[in-house]
Design brief:
single chain; 338 residues; mainly beta; 4-stranded antiparallel beta sheet; 24 strands; 0% helix; globular
């Protein structure tokens, strides 16, 4: 007889970990579990581990996400908020979720919703979180392992909101990605924020950085190198900061040298603390997009000691999508490829 419990609706956040290289995955850990209900809804959780040798919170696990009181609701009484939870036992148990956003948003999953909360950890265990919402890019920090957070602060704007239109894509967004430099290089401790918006008339990729723990921020830097205001879209960005050489590495979809819905993939790399970038076109055929097929905001990238691996989706025909990875090997701290 089919298990009746499996038919019950549920919403929550659960984390599995592996200690044998991914061969086995023990019983899941619960961050939050709304048993037998689909509301409220917890969305877009991102997990980070404190890997800094200087941190007294090393090996703590942190997760932040959007809490929808009633997903999709048009009722102004229903809100979205940013929540946070932590683990001090390698992800076996998690603290009760706490709200860290002061100003919430609506539940429509659009520009007036607060979303895209990604946690990053500094050299001494500082926790930095940035998200997008009706106010723009919102920043908060914790210096006590996530027990308390500073009041939220707007550090930048996402022009025309994070819910953007891209031709041939069912849904696109410019939500921020937050990373920190844990290397021993010149820019150690820098916080980087990477997002996209259409301030110049078409979607571009942008970056801001802070060298003082989020107190002050740089001017906005345009990452893609095509002509300004050319009507060509760059979208779905993701970022990784190499913990060995401190390089900033960003992957995004790029139509700068194509026509219509044809889309390529680009790696942008900075070795001067995010001040300037060199763009590298990935060796993948440009692909046409189909707005009837869900494409999704699920690129990724990782970097370590000069090795950079972007991960991306691409259409292989009109209806089928493949997930691929590229491998770059740079001489650490340079743009020189090995």
């Amino acid at each position: 007889m089919e298990n009746e419990k499996s038919k019950r609706p549920s919403s929550g956040i659960f984390i599995n970990s592996s200690s044998d290289g991914g061969i086995t995955w023990p019983t899941r850990s619960i961050v939050v579990d709304h048993i037998n209900t689909s509301a409220p809804m917890e969305d877009k959780p991102y997990v980070v581990v404190d890997n800094s040798d200087l941190s007294k919170y090393k090996n703590n696990v942190y997760v932040a996400w959007t809490h929808f009181q009633n997903y999709g609701s048009n009722d102004p009484a229903d809100s979205s908020q940013i929540y946070f939870s932590s683990s001090i036992d390698s992800g076996k148990t998690f603290t009760s979720p706490v709200r860290i956003s002061t100003t919430g948003g609506d539940c429509r999953d659009s520009s007036n919703t607060v979303e895209g909360a990604i946690t990053s950890v500094g050299p001494e265990g500082e926790i930095y979180i940035v998200w997008a919402g009706p106010k723009g890019l919102v920043f908060t920090e914790s210096v006590d392992g996530g027990k308390t957070f500073s009041p939220e602060k707007v550090i930048g704007f996402i022009y025309h909101g994070w819910d953007m239109k891209v031709q041939g894509i069912e849904r696109a967004n410019g939500m921020p990605v937050t990373k920190t430099d844990l290397s021993n290089g010149k820019y150690k401790g820098s916080i980087y924020i990477n997002w996209s918006d259409d301030r110049f008339g078409d979607p571009d990729i942008f970056l801001k950085y802070s060298r003082d723990g989020g107190k002050t921020w740089s001017n906005t830097i345009r990452v893609n190198d095509d002509s300004l205001r050319n009507g060509k879209a760059q979208f779905f960005t993701w970022m990784s900061v190499d913990p060995v050489d401190g390089s900033v590495n960003i992957v995004f979809y790029n139509r700068g040298d194509t026509f219509g819905n044809l889309t390529g993939v680009t790696l942008a790399r900075s070795i001067d603390g995010g001040k300037t970038f060199v763009n590298y076109k990935l060796n993948v055929d440009s692909f046409d997009c189909n707005n009837k097929i869900f494409f999704g905001d699920y690129t990724g990238i990782d970097a370590y000691d000069g090795f950079v691996i972007p991960i991306f989706m691409h259409f292989i025909d009109k209806v089928n999508i493949s997930v691929s990875a590229a491998l770059y090997h740079f001489k650490p701290g340079t743009q020189e490829q090995k």
